[in-house]
Design brief:
Elements lengths: L2 H15 L29 H21 L2 H5 L2 E10 L5 E6 L1 H13 L6 E10 L4 E12 L2 E14 L2 E8 L17
Parallel strand pairs: 1-6
Antiparallel strand pairs: 1-2, 3-4, 4-5, 5-6
Length: about 190
Amino acid sequence: MTKIGWICCVALLASSAGARAEDKAAAPAGAMDMSKMGPMSRPVTKEKEDKKGVDDLYKTMMDAWKKGDVVTVAENLDFPVIMLSDDSSGASQHFEASRDVWLGIMKPMAENMPKDAKVAFKHSAHFLSDTLAVVVEETSMTMGKVKGKWTGFSVVNYKDGKWKVKQMSEAGWGDMKPPGAPSAKK
């Protein structure tokens, strides 16, 4: 789409959307009332509290990972969890993992983690609503002479009174065939 096309689309959306979700003005005839459906109907209203909840989720999960306690990590996931990655050719791969499949994948990884492994981790939550957020994760790891860093992300949702991970995403796992997992979807 050309730059002019984008400008026209944005102008059209801006004029048809009417006002922000807080405004009570009626939508123009024939236009969707975006104060009742779509992202303007679900504004973020309690980011400070939600940020603390997501920070608590990540602290619990990171403490459990350090101990190799994948069962505690699993308690903080909303199953089925979506596993998203790409393979060596760059093609995206994903599948939904049940609790049993997820534990089957992660337990051997945790049990076989070298004792000299050191992991540093930071996360930054970006809220889409009061019940949905994307968390960008910056990780660095040292295992013996191997050092590296990467960025991943998770989608978290607020369910049953707490934040849980619904999707986990990191690059490079698409060539691995997880035990008991269905074929990856492209």
